[in-house]
Amino acid sequence: MVLKIFFPQCCNRADSGLLVGRWVPGFDSVVVLAVIHYPFIPGQVKKYLSEMQSAIQLELTVLGSWSMPKDGQEGMDSFLKDLSTIFPQGRWLQLSRELGKRGFACDDEKEKVIFIHYDQRKVMLSHLHPAHGQEPAAEGVSELRLVFQTVAQSQPLFFLDKYDDGPIKLTHWQSEGREASILVELIKQASVPMCLVLTWLLSLWTQLRILNMWPVRFVSSKLSTCVQLSHRTEHLQTISSPRRAQQHADFMRKANIFVSFLVDIALGLLLISWLYRENRIGRLANTLVPVADHVAKELQELLQWLMGAPAGLKMNRALDQVLGRFFLYHIHLWISYIHLLSPFIEMILWYVGLSACLGLTFALSVVSDIVALLTFHIYCFYVYGARIYCLKIYGLSSLWRLFRGKKWNVLRQRVDSCSYDLDQLFIGTLLFTILLFLLPTTALYYLVFTLLRLGVVLLQGFIHLMIDIINSFPLFAGGLRLFRPYRLAEGVKFKVLCEEPGMSLHLMMEINPLKLSTAVQQYRIPTYSCYPKDSWAALCKKLFVGDLIYPWTPLHKGSKED
């Protein structure tokens, strides 16, 4: 059997005294947390340990004695050894260190002893994640995880430093002075009333009856701005909760949301400072109307090309003229609509620009909605072309089943055999011929407007992708991984620290940080998806049969539709 003693580096040169720590249950290991200096009163030591046990809900005991030779303390070893009768334990560890030697010894003749030195501050602040590809439950009772949990739960034990006037003096990582910040303490004191006020305001906002009415719910589900507003409301409700995060995952989620919110606001303020300088709003408004006119002119030229002989194709002239004039009329209405709004565009953009104070994601959502409104005529063209094309495709497929003596059984959702009379076959042949010869004209219009619609959808998808990155990227976890990698531990590694003849083996435990990609993936903030719900094969099938596609419909993760 091998006894493993996890010893903190900060106690290597501690004065002689008692070792305080915990035996790891189920393993032949012990975790040393602190050293109580001589002189001390055993009764006060027992009282202090009982108070600590009730505070941290962890069993702390006197593990043994620690002897560090000093002038005037020649009989200290025998005195500390006799304390085993006052602090009765099943096993009494007696550690000692000699001057001039790097390692130290343990007076235990029954077992071989290995000393594992660890950085107490890093182990206390770190969180041990399961190894890559391993289930968390398999790591739940591991020896290393119990060591990390013991050090992390013993944080109140490290509050006692050398400046306290108590009867007990300890050596631990904070014994030279407690690590604290006045700014952090002030923020902690002010955060509780701020969270209560913010929670009350958010409850008033979410309980407004007008927001629950059907028209408002329907419109808000189609506008990216309203979806982003509801998303940020959920985030504020999460971070303004006055309840303390119990689990590490809850703490990381709150911290990631808070940092993401601050960065979003900062980027929005930078955008405002850029927009409202050198009359950029006015120049943008003066550019917007000519661009809309140019797009409308290009569409008119495209329709004129389709009404002729596009690429030398022979089109049905009557249907071609009807569809072309129908779409040209819509473009005329759209140009009139744009010129009617042109005097107010600068004022609208001026007020819309102020929305960036709510964050860059909110401003990008407004831009996405503006793009949707400015390209509404393209969406209408796509819907008209898709519906006409879809009706012809389904009509042709139904008439094709008629030729083969089949029909679609609606109740059983399958194709069954059916007998038709001569009149039905004659009418079906005429309709099939008409639809087949009109299909190329309709398909060409559908193809052109589908490509235009996909261009707009790709632009909106890129905007939503940037919103999704800002909303979901775990900035706090990424910052910890880059600047405090020990906070996110994936495992540990050991290196030989000291191996002297006649002395126990001394190892140094170092923390292996979590990979950056793994940390980002594990702590990614849940948000609404801006990607297509269907596979590429399903999208291609929809394009072929003329079904309407909405690739970037905002959906919250975890919803029934997702």
UniProtKB/TrEMBL annotation:
<keyword id="KW-1133">Transmembrane helix</keyword>
<dbReference type="GO" id="GO:0016020">
    <property type="term" value="C:membrane"/>
</dbReference>
<feature type="transmembrane region" description="Helical">
    <location>
        <begin position="424"/>
        <end position="448"/>
    </location>
</feature>
<dbReference type="InterPro" id="IPR007720">
    <property type="entry name" value="PigQ/GPI1"/>
</dbReference>
<feature type="transmembrane region" description="Helical">
    <location>
        <begin position="257"/>
        <end position="276"/>
    </location>
</feature>
<dbReference type="GO" id="GO:0006506">
    <property type="term" value="P:GPI anchor biosynthetic process"/>
</dbReference>
<dbReference type="Pfam" id="PF05024">
    <property type="entry name" value="Gpi1"/>
</dbReference>
<feature type="transmembrane region" description="Helical">
    <location>
        <begin position="322"/>
        <end position="341"/>
    </location>
</feature>
<feature type="transmembrane region" description="Helical">
    <location>
        <begin position="348"/>
        <end position="375"/>
    </location>
</feature>
<keyword id="KW-0472">Membrane</keyword>
<feature type="transmembrane region" description="Helical">
    <location>
        <begin position="381"/>
        <end position="403"/>
    </location>
</feature>
<dbReference type="GO" id="GO:0005783">
    <property type="term" value="C:endoplasmic reticulum"/>
</dbReference>
<protein>
    <submittedName>
        <fullName>Phosphatidylinositol glycan anchor biosynthesis, class Q</fullName>
    </submittedName>
</protein>
<keyword id="KW-0812">Transmembrane</keyword>
<feature type="transmembrane region" description="Helical">
    <location>
        <begin position="454"/>
        <end position="477"/>
    </location>
</feature>
